[in-house]
Write a structure and sequence with these properties.
six-stranded parallel sheet, alpha/beta, binds magnesium ion
Length: 221
């Protein structure tokens, strides 16, 4: 029997097409919590405390009876304010954004967090985006609407936008928006990774991929 040549290890999911994943990409739409910023959220516990079992926490809260809705929203905002105080920058986040900028890509932050928390975190960590879209816009994941709006504000077709996030909401929203590639980071769920175009255990992995594949135009092949 013929011995098959061993493939050189390259990326976590070693498919030839992945090398072209960034071709034509002009902008990157990034999630914040869990992707660029680590905030101590225990979402299952928070959902239980707020009494929400809707797949979208925001929709679940908005669907509560009016008397309860306001109180639960205030409770969530207090939890978020506490998490914001303890938040840390994910290793490699600043370097990743600098790398994407250096590659000539526009950057948008699309987060389900509030405007106040988001602005506080961006200021604390010195992060800068061309467009910042929070849930205060009235648009939030897993709907594709915030990603489409961010792409529109950047003046880039959604199909020319890469989307980076850490959750099933991010993957679902990016798919529906037609973003390409859809990139999952920092989530060990193999089933979710299979729904993304690319998956990386950490931001360093994504950085290596960008360094190797972006800006190779004219190299042929
Ligand atoms: Mg996230």
């Amino acid at each position: 029997m013929e011995e098959r040549p061993r493939r050189l290890p390259r990326f976590p999911r070693d498919e030839l097409l992945e090398a072209q994943a960034f071709d034509g990409v002009r902008a990157v739409l990034l999630d914040m919590d869990g992707t660029l910023v680590d905030s101590p959220y225990d979402w299952p516990a928070i959902r239980e405390r707020l009494g929400v079992d809707h797949p979208s926490l925001i929709d679940g809260l908005n669907g509560l009876p009016e008397a309860e809705r306001e109180a639960r929203w205030r409770e969530l905002e207090a939890i978020e304010a506490g998490a914001t105080a303890w938040a840390t920058l994910v290793e490699g986040a600043r370097e990743l954004l600098e790398l994407l900028r250096a590659a000539g890509l526009s950057l948008a932050l699309v987060t389900n967090n509030s405007e106040a928390n988001t602005r506080a975190l961006l200021e604390r960590f010195g992060l800068d985006f061309d467009v910042v879209l929070t849930r205060d816009s009235g648009l939030y994941k897993p709907s594709s609407a915030p990603l489409l709006e961010a792409a529109h504000r950047l003046g880039v077709p959604p199909g020319r936008c890469a989307a980076v996030g850490d959750s099933r909401h991010d993957v679902a929203a990016a798919r529906e928006a037609g973003c390409s590639p859809v990139i999952l980071v920092r989530n060990p769920d193999p089933e979710l990774a299979a729904r993304a175009d690319l998956a990386f255990a950490d931001l360093r992995g994504l950085m290596r991929f960008v360094e190797i594949t972006v800006g190779r135009d004219g190299e042929g092949g």
